[in-house]
Amino acid sequence: MKKILSLLLIVLLVLTLAACGGGNREAGNETEGESNAPPAGEGPKEGEPTYKEKMVPYDQLEPSERIVFLQNALNFSREGFYTAETKPQTQAVSYQSDSVEAYSMDYVLAFLSRGVEGEVTVTKSDGSTVTLAAEELAGMYVILDFTSGEAPVLYNPASGTEVTDFFFAVTATGEAIYSVVSDSVHNAAEILNAVGWNENATYRYVATDKFYIPVGPQERANGEIRGTLSGAINGSFPDLAIAGGKINDVLFIELME
Question: Is 52 left (phi over 0), alpha (psi -120 to 50) or beta?
Fold first, then answer.
């Protein structure tokens, strides 16, 4: 009889300990050795290549029309489209009776796949617009402080033409140059709308190191292009699974054809 009672006590003790252990897991407590890896199906499986390893090298793609981000076209961050030897350099320009360091607009225009000709419509920060001849724009210099949060100034020392508070410009062929100043946030869909691009298309967001991600209208709806305090321009698309929806140092947006 004593043996039977002893066995019953042991069984009850085991069941009690098992119940307590199950209760801890349900409450969210992690047991030593338990994995924090995402559930099956989320992220690359062990041994599988990452998106960056699988993507077609950018140089093998066919360029199409673009929205070029002004600051990242001038601010060398990492090797890719630029190297340490070919990065943009400032030049001394006489502006308002002073000598200032400025970047030639040629650096930015070089990223427009269709070039620039005819007339260019420039929109300023206050919403007003001015029209420039392509030759006038090509002769301009960009005066800016990457970390100040102030809008760039475009200035042509040969003609004296000046555009203050530059926001974005749209060429006659529909390409654009867009300014994202430090500590500013821009909805990704609104950028397309501002320059007159189709919001229902899929676009490729390309970084200065030639890394890129495709973004469709659904992922773009909640996406942001952000000017960081350091002056770099980054993209965030919380609904995009590829690359965690992140891309740093975005240089341009390109239509996928």
Answer: alpha
Cα-based distances in Å from 85 to 116, 189, 231:
26, 35, 21
Q: What are the pLDDT digits (tens) for 206-233? A: 999 999 999 999 999 999 999 999 999 9
What are phi and psi for residue 93, nearest 5 degrees?
-125, 135
CA atoms of 207 and 93, how far apart (whole Å): 29
DSSP state of 179: -
Strands (E), 87-183: 91-95, 98-104, 119-124, 129-133, 141-143, 153-155, 162-163, 166-170, 176-178
- Token duo for residue 183: 């500590």
Residue 44 backbone phi and psi in degrees, to 5: -70, 140
Q: Rounded to whole angstroms, how far apart are CA atoms 104 and 74?
A: 9
Q: What is the pTM of this model?
A: 0.81
H-type alpha helices, 27-133: 51-54, 70-74, 106-109
Distances (CA, A) of 57 to 210, 211, 212, 237: 8, 8, 9, 22
Indicate whether 39 pLDDT > 50.
no
Q: What is the pLDDT of residues 107-142, one digit of tens each?
A: 999 999 999 999 999 999 999 999 999 999 999 999
CB 102 within 8 A of CB 93: yes
Question: Any residues with CB less than 8 A from the CB of 60 and at least 6 apart, and which?
Answer: none
- Tokens (6 digits) for 112: 């427009």
